[in-house]
Each structure stands twice: as C-alpha cells, then as structure tokens.
Backbone:
C-alpha cells in the first residue's frame, strides 16, 4: 500500500514536472545580418528584448560567430559560410537548452544561413524558421551597402568584379557565396559553394529536402520598399528570370518550385509556407508590427 502510494505520488510529481516542461516557451535562436553582431543593443539586442517582453521566461540565443563582437562582425564578411553553418550546428547540438527543439529567426543573410542549418542539421529540431529580409535566391548587387561600413562595401564590390565564382573569392567572401548572376546561371551553378548547394542547383540532396520538410512553418518576410537588396523578390524566394536582370519571377514560377527540388511546393500545399510583406526599407519595422505578426510564430 505504502509503496503504491509512493508510486502514485511519484507519478503525480512526474506529471506535474513534465507538464511544466511542456508549458515552457520554445527557445529561440537568432542569426544577425551582414556587418552586425549578436549583441548590439540597437539591433539584435533590441530584438531579443522585444521577444523576452512578449514571452516571459523564453530562452533566446543570439548567435555570435567568433569569440568577440569585432570578430563576429568581421566574420559576417570573411568567414566561409559552410564553416559558419558547421560551427553553428555543433553549437546548437551541444546546447542543453535546445535539446527539445527551437524556433529560429534570421535577419537578412542570417535568413538563408539558418535555412542551411535546417537543411543540414536536423538535430536538435528546428520548429519554425522565420526569415526577415533573407535572400533565398541570393543577390545580384549591393545597391546601398550600409554607409558606416563603406570601405567593406568597396572591397566586396572589387572582389565580386574580380570574379565572384573563382575559388579564392568563394572561399574568402561571404557575399560571393550567395552571389547569383542571372546572366551566367551556369557559372553560378558551378561556382557557388553555398547558395547553389542549399538550393539544389547542382544535384538534389534528398536529405536537404527531407530535413526542410521537418519545419512546422517557414515564414518569409519581405520589405516592400527595400532599396538595399537586389532584387527584393529574393526575400520571398523569387529572382530574376534566368538570362537577364530586369524581369523577375516568383518562387512559384521557378524550376526549383515546379520540379519541387527542395520540397517547397509540397510545403506550400500543406500551408506551411508563410509570406509576409511589411512596408518599409530593409529591416525597418515597428515593434507593433513585430508583436502582431512575428510573435505568434514564436509560441
Ligand atoms: C547531403 O547533405 C548531408 C547533410 O548536410 C551531407 O552529409 C551529405 O554529404 C550530402 N550529400 C551529398 C551527396 O552531397
Ligand atoms: C560547368 O561545369 C560543367 C561540368 O563540369 C562544364 O562542362 C561547364 O563548362 C561549366 N560551365 C562553366 C560556365 O563554368
Ligand atoms: C512601399 O511599397 C508598397 C508596395 O509596393 C507601396 O504600396 C507603398 O506605397 C510603398 N511605400 C512607400 C513609403 O514608398
């Protein structure tokens, strides 16, 4: 009898404890954009605070790539993206807070980098992927590279002109790794060591497709008045129609979608792709907009 009561009590406690674990908010992993860092109080620091205000007790990890803030900023230009993704996968796998899964939110280039994490590293599981101004079909220009890092912008343009798809530039320059030249699609397919790989341009890696399907929702936010990303359509996975650089096509009009090389068509049919548009320039949004449109995906 006593043993039985003890067992019942244990079971009850277990239920209570498990119940509590289930009610804990899903952790969030953030990956910042180009020239930014994990912890700038005016960018990712502010985002982390907004999330914590809305979801008390949430665990938020804002990724620092490197061992210091200056390194983190520098690495957003000059550390091979495939190595960055590998490093992040290891970090996430070792973090006990994330073992039951997490949501992720990438800003600008961080959006496509987190998609690579989803496709390459299914454990721990990513639940929702929220891409805020991410460039899923790459870019063909840096029209308004942010002013305070203009020497970086000049260097980037020089290297891209020198030869975006040469091995040296690919290994060295992050932005070359998602440079997408629509006039020379074949060079892009052959030479891009990052974007052409995750977009299944050279061959279909079945595990990329399967892993992406594990997401509950893939949310893509496009800035409707974006003058920094060329073309802004890339934020909804559209791009220039191959062979020229004026006319754009949507994701749904692309071969990637029609052949369903990445499973996006299947995800859309199942209602798991979400396209959000926000008025404003690149990464410009209000707290009200964020709380209303993004916070619901973080619960
Ligand atoms: C497919 O992707 C997985 C996960 O990143 C990788 O381990 C594997 O080598 C890739 N396969 C091919 C054929 O590229
Ligand atoms: C792309 O790679 C294929 C196969 O290796 C090769 O035949 C072709 O010439 C390459 N094209 C360019 C533009 O580099
Ligand atoms: C932003 O873009 C949208 C959609 O193209 C347009 O309706 C709106 O007028 C633009 N807003 C500004 C401030 O330019």
Residues:
């Amino acid at each position: 009898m006593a043993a039985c009561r003890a067992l019942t009590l244990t079971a009850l406690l277990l239920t209570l404890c498990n119940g509590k674990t289930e009610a804990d908010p899903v952790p969030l992993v953030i990956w910042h954009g180009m020239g930014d860092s994990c912890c700038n109080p005016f960018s990712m620091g502010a985002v982390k605070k907004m999330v914590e205000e809305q979801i008390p007790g949430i665990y938020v990890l804002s990724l620092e790539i490197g061992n210091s803030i200056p390194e983190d900023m520098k690495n957003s230009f000059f550390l091979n993206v495939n190595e960055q993704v590998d490093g992040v996968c290891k970090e996430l796998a070792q973090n006990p807070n994330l073992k039951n899964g997490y949501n992720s939110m990438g800003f600008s280039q961080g959006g496509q980098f987190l998609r690579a994490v989803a496709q390459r590293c299914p454990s721990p599981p990513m639940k929702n992927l929220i891409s805020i101004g991410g460039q899923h079909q790459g870019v063909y220009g840096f029209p308004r590279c942010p002013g305070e890092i203009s020497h970086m912008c000049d260097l980037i343009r020089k290297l891209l002109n020198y030869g975006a798809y040469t091995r040296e530039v690919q290994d060295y320059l992050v932005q070359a790794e998602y440079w997408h030249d629509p006039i020379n699609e074949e060079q892009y397919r052959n030479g891009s060591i990052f974007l052409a790989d995750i977009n299944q341009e050279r061959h279909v890696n079945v595990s990329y497709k399967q892993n992406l399907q594990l997401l509950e929702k893939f949310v893509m936010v496009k800035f409707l008045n974006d003058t920094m990303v060329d073309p802004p359509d890339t934020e909804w996975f559209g791009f220039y129609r191959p062979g020229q650089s004026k006319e754009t096509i949507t994701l749904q009009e692309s071969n990637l979608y029609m052949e369903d090389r990445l499973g996006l068509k299947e995800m859309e049919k199942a209602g798991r792709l979400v396209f959000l548009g926000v008025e404003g320039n690149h990464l410009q949004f209000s707290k009200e907009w964020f709380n209303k449109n993004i916070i619901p995906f973080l619960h």
Summary: The longest strand covers residues 126-132. Residues 2-23 form the longest helix (22 residues). The pocket of 2-acetamido-2-deoxy-beta-D-glucopyranose (ligand 1) is lined by residues 120, 205, 207-208 (CB under 6 Å). Residues 8 and 14 are 10 Å apart (CA to CA).
